[in-house]
Write a structure and sequence with these properties.
With about 280 residues, this protein is an alpha+beta fold. The protein has seven helices and seven strands; from the N terminus they run αααβαββαββααββ. The strands form two sheets. Strands 2-4-5-7-6 form a five-stranded mixed sheet. Helix 5 runs antiparallel to helix 7. The chain is extended. The termini are far apart. Bound molecules: adenosine-5'-diphosphate. Adenosine-5'-diphosphate binds next to helix 5 and helix 7.
């Protein structure tokens, strides 16, 4: 009995305790080797899962910090270079040059604001105030913000919606931000004379909103990653559009936090469709 007790319980528990100490000291690669069935084996499995999650989270955090540093470096070095050149009288201190410095500060401010939104969403601190919302008038309101830019690029924007579209149960401000981000991408990645369509439909699951463009499209190998933080299909090109690389990550967080779903379809060279669906009032 004593032998069995030691072999089946005490020894495995000792292994878990030793591994837990290792994890506490920061060795997140540590795993326990306990086989068999029963509660002790289950404990070993749970421990390994916990260590794997901690390890993955730490990796994500480290990557995130590296990405943020990378994203900050470009605008900061442009700012520094330009200001130093002005101080050395190599660059004239005129409106044009000050405007380009101002553009970089706007880019930095947007990056910081987007990071703040994401980190609040991550920690569950982003407040949502859902209410009965008419997505037709919300879309018109967001479209309005783009009218001048659309006209300048001669891109047409149509809203297709049935007259009897039911109301959705969403936070109107957060949903306007989702639409804004999707429309902003559709606008930036659609060349002159292109078309954008916002399509609203409803079925038994809820209301579906599609933002369809006739833009550059996304290669199939990049499509699964576009909702990742800082993922850009073409880094050099998208920097000139002023994107932070966080727009779609924010869209995903905001939609999923409201019990919705978002996905993308695209054909390279033809265009993209970003779709999200949101629920009805309970
Ligand atoms: P960004 O701030 O760079 O636009 P996003 O997270 O909004 O970042 O988008 C990530 C990337 O997905 C973009 O850099 C772009 O490569 C691609 N993308 C997003 N929307 C579209 C679109 N409508 N058409 C083509 N590519 C798109």
């Amino acid at each position: 009995m004593a032998y069995l007790f030691t072999r089946q319980i005490v020894a495995p528990l000792g292994k878990v305790t030793a591994a837990a100490r290792q994890v506490a000291q920061g060795n997140l690669e540590q795993r326990v080797d306990i086989h068999g069935s029963g509660e002790i084996a289950e404990l070993g499995e749970s421990f390994n899962m916990m260590a794997a999650t901690l390890n993955r989270d730490q990796q994500l955090r480290q990557n995130m910090v590296a990405d943020i540093a990378h994203e900050l470096r470009t605008p900061l070095s442009i700012l520094q270079g330009n200001i130093e050149a002005m101080l050395d009288d190599v660059l004239e201190t005129n409106t044009d040059n000050l405007t380009s410095i101002h553009q970089e500060t706007l880019l930095l401010a947007r990056l910081v604001e987007d990071l703040r939104t994401l980190s609040l969403a991550d920690s569950g601190q982003l407040r949502f105030q859902p209410e009965n919302t008419d997505l037709r008038s919300l879309s018109l309101q967001v479209i309005d913000e783009f009218q001048t830019q659309l006209a300048a690029k001669n891109v047409s924007l149509a809203l297709e919606t049935p007259n009897d579209l039911p109301q959705a149960w969403v936070d109107p401000d957060r949903t306007a931000q989702v639409l804004h981000n999707l429309l902003s991408n559709a606008f930036h990645f659609t060349p002159e004379d292109g078309n954008i369509t916002i399509q609203l439909t409803s079925d038994s699951n809820g209301i579906t909103v599609s933002v369809i463009d006739t833009g550059v499209g996304i290669p199939p190998e990049d499509l699964p990653n576009v909702f990742d933080r800082f993922y850009r299909v073409d880094r050099s090109r998208t920097r000139s559009t002023g994107g932070s690389g966080l727009g779609l990550a924010i869209v995903k967080q905001l939609v999923e936090a409201q019990n919705g779903r978002v996905w993308a379809d695209s054909t390279e060279g033809k265009g993209s469709t970003f779709t999200f669906c949101v629920p009805y009032p309970a």
